[in-house]
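Q: Can someone sanity-check these two? First one:
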Amino acid sequence: MTDFRERIILALDFGSPEEAYACLDRLTGDVKYVKVGMELFYAAGPAIVSTLKERGFKVFVDLKIHDIPNTAQGAMRSLARLGADMMNVHAAGGVKMMAAAREGVEQGTPAGSPRPLLIGVTMLTSTSEDVMNSQLLIPGKLEDTVAGYAAFTKEAGLDGVVASPLEVPLIKKTCGTSFVTVTPGIRPAGAAKGDQTRVTTPEEALLTLKSDYIVIGRAITGAADPHAAWNDMIDSLKASR
C-alpha cells in the first residue's frame, strides 16, 4: 500500500450522520477509509454504513463486540451483511468467542463479496500499564498482555489486531509480518493527547513502527480547517518517507 490515504482511517466520532457528512464534504477527495464507532453507529443506525459505501468510502465498523460466543457470532453475521470492510471484537473475549465471531462474518458476507477483515482489540490505547494492573487486575507488563492477546487472536483465525503503534514491532514478531495491525492513538506533532496514553505521530506509526493502518480522528475532524490539517499530515508523511 503505497498511497498513504489507503492506510489512514478517519474516525467519524460524531453524534449524528449530518455532522459526519458535513466533515467529509470538507475533505472531498482526501479521505478513502473511515471508521464508524459506537457513537455514530448508535445515533445513525446500520444505514450509515450503506450510505458511506455508496459515497465510495471503505468502512471500518468499530463496535468492539465482546459477549458469549453465540451472541458474538450472530452480531458479526448481521454486521457482515452491511458491506463493511473491517470489523472488530475484543480479544479479551477469548479464542472460542473470536472463532465464533469469525464464523459469523463468513456466514453473513454476501455471496460474491470479499469477506471483511476481522480484527481483535488487544488493549485500549487509553489504558496504561498501571490501570491494567490495578483496575483490570491483569498483572505483568502491558506489552506482554498485548502480545498474548495477539497470539490468541491469530489462533482464532482473525486477520489482525487493534493495538498501540508502540506494540506493532512485538506483534509482528509474535504473529508474523502479514498479521494486520490497526493502530489508534495517533496524534500529529504538537497535538493534544486527549484521553489517549500510548500515542505516536503518523510518521512514527506508519514509517518507523510499520503499522498497516492508522486511525486518526479529532486532530483532523476537530481542526479549524480539516482539509488543511489532513494535507499537512500527508505532506509530512511524504517528506519523511
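And here is the second, same format, sequence then C-alpha cells:
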Amino acid sequence: MTVKDRVYVYNTWGARVRDLPARPGKESRTWQRMGGRSRIGPLAFAPGDRHVVVATGDGLVRQLDVQGLQVAAWRHPVPVSCLGLTANGLATGCGDGRVRLWSWDGRLLRQTEHRRQASHLVFSAGASALAVCDGDGSVSLWDLRTGQLSLVAELVHQVVGLAFLENGRGLMTCTRAGRIERWSLPHRS
C-alpha cells in the first residue's frame, strides 16, 4: 500500500511490518518542496519476496530492499502505469504507449513500438510470453522469443485482472463489469 511518499508492507494478520520511502531521502525532500504532485505508481514484490519494486510518477522505477535502500533503478522518459515481474527481469508499461523489458541489472533489453498505454502486464510461466492489456480492453500476447505481438481479445469493458492459466492453457481476463473469461492463446505461445 502507498501513502503519500511511503510504501507500507503488511503481514497476513494486517499488522504493518515495513514503512519504506518510495524515494531516497534527499530526493524525497526535493519532491515535497516541489509540491509532491507526482504520484507513487504501481508496486510489486520482486521474485523471492525480498525486495519491493515501486514506480514513482517521475518515470523512475526503484527496487528497494527490506530497509528501504535502493538496490536498482530503471529510468523512463514518462511515468510508468504498470509492472510485470519475473525471475529474469521486469516489464514496464508507460504513458508513451511502449512496453519495455529490462534485466534486473538495469539494462533495457527490448521495447514494443508506440501503441496504446498498457494497464496490465503479466508474464507466462517460464517468461516466454507477456500478456499486455491496454485501457481500451485490447489484450495482446507478446512472444518474447520472436518479438511478435498477437491480438488475443478485444473486450468491451475495462480489464481489472489478467492471468495466465497453468501450463499455458490460456489466459483469463476479468473486467470492471464483473465478467470473467478464458481465452485461447495463439498456437506458437
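A (reply): Looked at the second one. DSSP finds one helix and 18 strands in the chain. Residues 25-33 form the longest helix (9 residues).
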